[in-house]
Amino acid sequence: MSGQHRVVITGASSGIGAATAVEFARAGAALVLAARGEAGLADIAARCQAAGGTAHVRVVDATDAAAVAALAAEARDLLGGIDLWFSCVGAGVVGRYEDVPIADHRQVIETNLISHMNDVHAVLPIFLAQDRGTWVNMISVGGFVATPYAAAYAASKFGLRGFSEALRGELSKKPHIHVCDIYPTFVDTPGIDHAGNYSGARLSLPPGALAPETVAKAVVRLASRPRNTTAVGAPALALKLGQFAVPNLSAAVMSGFMDTWSDKAPPGEDGPGALFTPPGSASGIDGGRRRPDQRRAAGVAIGVTAVAAICGAALLWPRRR
User: Fold this and answer.
1) Residue 225 needs a FRET pair 20 to 30 A away by CA distance; which of 239, 271, 273, 319 works?
2) pTM, 2 dp
3) Catalytic residue among 97, 149, 153, 183
């Protein structure tokens, strides 16, 4: 990344958002970091300053449209403009759909989808006035591969993908304003500790989860080289083709896996996690669950599922005809 970029990150107090803040700080960026958790923001701001960047922090609930609009205006004034806005607010709840309180499902949609829409509604007028700017939309492979036991999460991520595509259509005559989607596979962040859980089992990650810094580096590259779609940990083309070819295959495979997992995993305590209130202390960047010998397994598994879907479609096609 060349030159000093002016960057706003929502969801910056832990995980991918926090890792991205530090990565931008190393490149000398001027930052405004926002999240619900004051302790987490203070921790990440200190890391950014130690890395050589300038970080202003604001406690903001991104589901509050007025608060996000105020954040955008203040960030523009503090930084003298906004070059890149990274929407990284995210949450999840795990459990069979009927076992999860509807309030928790709604909160996931508000957090993962509505907050990102609030971000764009606040920053897009600034980009239009500047005639340039990059919005980075954190989605995940969950935007292509449905996630049983996380139905609201799946709805939010599929919704985010459609939202980005609609925006790109509207902005097609603005060549210097970019809408960039990020699709990582499983990432080892504190988010799993913050998730709501009504599965009766202790939450864990599959083998091969990515480091948050891996995703952060992909986001930082977009500041200089924007692109519509960036998959991290699995081939983007395989994801797209798999979803197009046999959209229900991966969901069926995942559902069977989740059934087995919930029966065999150690018992866990059910509850909403940090869905409605932020953690009381700093959570940091890393979830601490990765195994170095399994780093590539998640991407390979998802790639294999997508390829299986394509092959299944090829086998079924003559019969359908």
Assistant:
1) 239
2) 0.86
3) 153
